[in-house]
Amino acid sequence: MFMIGYAGSALASCAAVCACQCCQFVTKETMRRSARLAYCVLFTLAMLLAWVLRDFAKPLLEKIPWIVRHAAGLPEELSEKWYGQQAVYRVSMGNFLFFGLLSLVLLGVKFKSDKRDQYLQHGGWIVKVGLWIGFNIIAFLAPVSLINAYSWLARAGSGVFLVVQMIILLDLMQSWNDSWVEKDDERYLYGLLALTMGGYIGALTLSGVLYWLFTPAGADSCGFNITIITLTLLLCLSFSLLSLHPVAKNGSLFPSAAITLYVTYLGYSALQSEPHSYECNGVGHRYTAASATTLALGMLLTLLSVVYSALRAGSNTRTFLTSSNSGTPTARDVEEALLDQGTSAGLDGAPDTQTMTTGAKTERSSKAMSEFEPVTYSYSFFHLIFALASMYIAMLMTGWGTGAEERDLMDVGWTSVWVKICSQWATAALYSWTLAAPMVFPDRDFS
Prior knowledge:
Organism: Apatococcus lobatus
Mean pLDDT: 75
Pfam families: Serinc
Subcellular location: Membrane
Largest sheet: none
Order of helices and strands: HHHHHHHHHHHHHHHHHH
InterPro entries: TDE1/TMS
Membrane topology: Multi-pass membrane protein
């Protein structure tokens, strides 16, 4: 029995070691092959840290014995920089500095043979994680005046991030529509028709729900909510009709239906951000009785949606950058790089044609071409988007700098309401401009 127990213990230990090594190998390979996923993990961890420090740091720190706080250098009266709005700003600034530095260092990377691709973007994770931790620590040592200045900078950066989200949505819907139309297959056309009808039906249904939720019975005056919902319907009707007008050469109902649904959702999101004490916020009254698990789930979904938006925007270089200034090289860039090395697909720098065989030249050209394999997206732009997303999360958690009106919630307050309403109007205006621009400037190529 003793030997069986010993053997079982040894086998269990071996299995544990193998499992640990397997996890380490999988993690390493994941980070090497999908750096974007690893950066998303860092970003998500930082935002969860900001949430914890905002809502739970003060009661936790107050329970630490005074002698421990003294040994740690913390004052008896805890400074606000360790919790609440200040803590959110500091974590946000640490991540902004981290991603901003990577954006600057990786500027101009066009080929996978660039050492920065291997050692900075896809490698060196121990150094990068240490740098990420260091920036977050340094942010907590910064003076309050610097943090307050950063909070104003974050307002501007968050606005840029919202614009990026709009452009990504518009480009996605138009590309989707063009792709299915070009297939010249009735199945795809019927698919577009079904999605278009679904978008409009969904928007109308949601509008009806908004009238029901945000004009509750017993409320004295909900004129503001009624105005916002009605104006949303009028905006959607306006650009939908414009997309059918002959002047809109690129107009189509499917993108209009998708933007209609999104604009209606922004209206819902704006009204839902009203203070929960506001009598016309029917959703807020229901949230008041919600469990802590429901609130936590809602905040996590918000964080994940921001992560997804940042990931998609950062990877979609084509929409924002032209080939001349993006990280993705053109055929001309590849040719020039090959010439710099004295080799191209059809020209070798001063070759000796008497001694070099055709096979050798082909092998050399293939090797050179593989060396100058282009990157699939702009690394610098990718990190810039995550830097802006770090600012945006800080605004969500602090009610756009006014302080969250409900500590356990995110993105609540009248400032958040107006930011989303302005985003709604900007989205409708931007889409309408994409329809009208070819008519206003007929000599320009808007493809």
